[in-house]
Amino acid sequence: MIHFGILDDHPLVVEGLLSLFKTNPEILAGWGTTTLADCEKKMLESPVDVLLLDIHLDQLDGIKLCRDFRMRFPALQILMLTSYAEPPLIKAAFQNGAAGYLLKNAGYREIQEAITTARSGRRYVQPQVQEILLSSSMGFGQTPRLAYIPTLTQREQEVLTLIVNEMTTQEIADKLFVTTKTVETHRTNLLQKLGARNVAGLVKIALEKGLV
């Protein structure tokens, strides 16, 4: 029997998934919640094998949570279940420990297969997501660029604004009264959150998303 949990800030999504697997003899929906605090409590009290995790949660970054959960609960397999299909976001999810990536239009059998695959220690990528990644890598047409807005801390927002204003690492450190190493850490986190490969890409994405 595979036990799984759900963290999504939309109650209807949580309720729908719990109901969907209510009668499944092999996969049991252990619990579902809409808040991080409750999720952490439930994972300690009622551990699950797989967690279905939304990417964009209220005031939270699901990809960062994925990384944090994997560090705290090494045996936990995490499936990202989201509406966002941007290739950089998909890649960032896997780079931060996700075992699979599903869009919220996934059917019952796809979700079931994803949970089973993740529990076995293998990665699962929904066929639709595979097509998006292939199209992106081959340069075929336009890949979906949905309005995913990553959650930035106040300091990350400040650093991002200064980067866009073409300030150097040393200048940013002096202005914010921090070390250059701290600035570099924030820049690394920003690259990861926005799915950028370098500072030029970071600036481009930040402007596209209206983050500055």
From TrEMBL:
Gene3D superfamilies for this protein: 3.40.50.2300
Domain of life: Bacteria
Domain Response regulatory: 3-119
Any one GO MF annotation of this record: DNA binding
Record GO biological process: phosphorelay signal transduction system; regulation of DNA-templated transcription
InterPro entries: CheY-like_superfamily, NreC/VraR/RcsB-like_REC, Sig_transdc_resp-reg_C-effctor, Sig_transdc_resp-reg_receiver, Tscrpt_reg_LuxR_C, WalR-like
Chain positions found as 4-aspartylphosphate: 54
One Pfam family named in its UniProt record: GerE
Keywords: DNA-binding, Phosphoprotein
Keyword Cell inner membrane appears in the UniProt entry: no
Ranges of residues in domain HTH luxR-type: 145-210
Name of the molecule in the record: DNA-binding response regulator
